[in-house]
Write a structure and sequence with these properties.
Length: about 250
């Protein structure tokens, strides 16, 4: 999926999500007012169940599915799917609870308490999605094919972000156990998460190291867009051939 089409699908997914989050409640209210079902006890229940119980969740999950599949197709087009695909999948899974929470109560996003508990995985995901919006396939430089230190920084920080998404997702043990029908897996994940959190926070118990790594990840993404950083280095044989020609 090329950059223009990727942008179109991402805007489509975001638009559906915002429609379900911000507009469906007003549509529900308008439906009740126009139908006059509020005059009879229980008469509005079918409409409420259809809009709030079926239509709204369907729109939200459709939007998340569009964002996820569009990102994977974009990575496939750029030949980045094998390493970055699993990383992006973990970021999406770790970001889904906060997206569902915001969809249920959009006003909560403006509250400082909600902003303070935003999972770091969604910030990694937002930065990477913004990077993929650039037309990386138009030039001769392969995406993320920067110098070896820069490429290593990108991969290490991305792996850290994925592990942080796993470690700081309280719902992970319940979701994994329910989807896979393995209660023992839920217990293992619940027991392993505190140890993983200790390792990722270097024993401080604070999320500050995660934000430091996030800053390094964003800086590495920005640096990889620079021509001098992303330009492929000439090989030793090419340099020798150039000298012989002279």
């Amino acid at each position: 999926m090329f950059a223009g089409r990727y942008l179109w699908w991402m805007l489509m997914g975001i638009g559906i999500f915002l429609f379900a989050t911000l507009s469906l409640d007003y549509i529900t209210w308008l439906t009740i007012q126009l139908s006059g079902c509020g005059d009879m006890a229980g008469a509005c229940e079918p409409a409420l169940r259809l809009i709030s119980g079926v239509l709204k969740p369907a729109c939200i999950w459709t939007a998340i599915g569009i964002l996820f599949m569009a990102t994977l197709l974009r990575l496939h087009t750029l030949s980045l799917i094998w390493f970055w695909g699993p990383i992006v999948a973990i970021w999406f899974v770790a970001s889904t609870p906060i997206l569902l929470f915001v969809a249920a109560d959009a006003a909560a996003l403006t509250q400082p308490a909600t902003l303070a508990v935003l999972p770091v995985a969604i910030l990694f995901l937002a930065a990477f999605v913004a990077y993929l919006l650039f037309a990386l396939e138009d030039g001769d430089i392969l995406p993320l094919a920067a110098s070896v230190p820069l490429r290593l920084t990108l991969r290490l920080t991305a792996v850290y972000g994925a592990l942080a998404g796993v470690a700081f997702m309280p719902e992970l043990s319940r979701i994994a156990g329910t989807l896979l029908d393995m209660p023992a897996l839920s217990v293992v994940i619940a027991l392993a998460q505190p140890y993983l959190q200790t390792v990722l926070t270097f024993g401080t118990g604070s999320t500050a190291p995660a934000y430091v790594v996030l800053a390094a990840f964003i800086a590495a993404l920005a640096a990889s867009l620079l021509p001098h950083a992303a330009a492929p280095q000439p090989s030793r044989s090419a340099i020798m051939l150039r000298r012989l020609r002279r």
